[in-house]
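chain below, 399 aa
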Amino acid sequence: MQSQQFHDLIDWLIDGARSEPEPVAMMTRTCERLVEAGLPLYRVGVFVETLHPDIYGYGFVWRDGQETVTSETTVDVEGLEEYQRSPLKLMYDSAAEVRFRLDEQASREFPFFDDMRGEGVTDYLALPLIFMDGTVNGVSFTTRRPGGFSGADLIALRRLNGPLARLIEVISLREIATTLLDTYVGNRAGARILAGQIRRGHADTMRTAIWLSDMRGFTSLSDQLPPEVMVKLLNAYFDCQVGPILRHGGEVLKFMGDGLLAVFPIAADGSDEADVCARMLAAAHECRDTVAAMNYIEGNHIIERFRFGVALHVGQVLYGNIGGGNRLDFTCIGPAVNLAARLERIAGRLGRTVVASSDFIGLCAEGFVELGEFPIRGLSHTERVYGLEVETLQAAEGL
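prediction:
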């Protein structure tokens, strides 16, 4: 083994592997440099749990001369039979090194090694990646060299483990921070917070298309249903909106009981405002269909014919940190948001699903009809309101 190349690799990891800032590229280059240093590696696997609403953990598998494969699992792997019968379980349970020579009888107890023998693997080593809080993740190494790993190989891989664990922990914590911010404040706001925009009053003005929606009959449902059922119902209802909003380029900023506030940012020069409004309208049509098709059944609780209303508007908002003390909220405020909220209430009074302001119609009028002028609470002037033509036709037909 080339000791200088190996020590250079250790120094590179300790220094944060700054020439390869992307996690997959960092691990791929680490494996390549281990081989260049003389370690007879065939396959390296890294397995890290995470904190994510939908993802349990990530996997990374490198094979010499092949493309690196990454994966994610949405379930707790500890409940899977594949995991229960794997050598990794021994490593996780003991938080200690696990090694098997594949010509030994003991390795026959693990189906995973049958596949590895088929690929010519002779030796397997799994090491715990122990984070500073005691969390155990794992890395495994295999070789196809006759006779397996040498004593020098094992010493080198054990020496590698500490610096690799620290770097993976840093990457994992940053990934978790990004995920949590995206989950709770949205990806645009999350990126701004990570960039350091966390002071109270730090806000920017931006032009955006505004989405403000509300479930019809929420108060009555809350009175009728147990709280735990109401939470599940709300999650199912919001699923009907969040997916379409994100797919069409919007960002969900806030859930307010049964209400949802989202923005579809417009370029600073306004060059894409018509396209942005068209995308928001497409999301509204999709949500209208999915909410109408929604039903919820749990035990004796059967709820059908869900209805909601959404107001579409365009205007300037103040976007940034607002709050008191050390508790801040990253949100948007301004007259445009207030008007959207008033329009949504008008939609409820008119029995409409989708209504739009005259500012929105000036950019995206297709499929709308005028509903009239309405007084807006808090404003000295009336607002011209528009609704979907298809809803006018359905009302006329008694649908």
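Residues 57 and 265 are 32 Å apart (CA to CA). The chain is about 40% helix and 30% strand.
thats it, cya
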